[in-house]
UniProtKB/TrEMBL annotation:
Belongs to the major facilitator superfamily. MFSD6 family. It comes from the Eukaryota. Coiled coil: none annotated. It is a multi-pass membrane protein. SUPFAM superfamilies: MFS general substrate transporter. InterPro entries: MFS_assoc_dom, MFS_MFSD6, MFS_trans_sf. Its main location: membrane. It is found in: Membrane. Residues 12-67 form the Major facilitator superfamily associated domain. This is Major facilitator superfamily associated domain-containing protein. The chain crosses the membrane at residues 12-33, 39-58. Keywords: Membrane, Transmembrane, Transmembrane helix.
């Protein structure tokens, strides 16, 4: 087989590969973590049910937005970089939550 890799999209593909590789072991254990933190089983069930649906809905919506308002930049590096700059501080902000420690 002859595979062709778009080198312009390679950073995005690598990011999502490692992102979902990190989520793979976390999602089955999320109920255990919530139980240890004192979250009720009903809330954990709701989070477990809604989170995959939100991920499934966010991907086509984000794709529609990118296709509807194309950037002048051909490889969307600016859009991907700004997405990471907005997302990462919110994840780092979780460390200041006293309930997690």
């Amino acid at each position: 087989m002859n595979f062709k890799v778009d080198r312009g999209l390679l950073p995005v593909k690598i990011h999502f590969f490692f992102f979902f590789a990190a989520l793979g072991p976390l999602l089955p254990q999320m109920n255990v973590f919530g139980r240890q933190l004192g979250v009720s089983p009903g809330v954990m069930g709701l989070v477990t049910a809604v989170l995959p649906l939100l991920w499934a809905a966010a991907k086509p919506i984000f794709g529609y937005v990118v296709d509807f308002w194309p950037l002048q930049c051909p490889d969307h590096t600016v859009a991907f970089g700004s997405y990471l700059c907005l997302k990462n501080p919110r994840f780092l902000n979780l460390y200041s939550n006293p309930y997690i420690h």
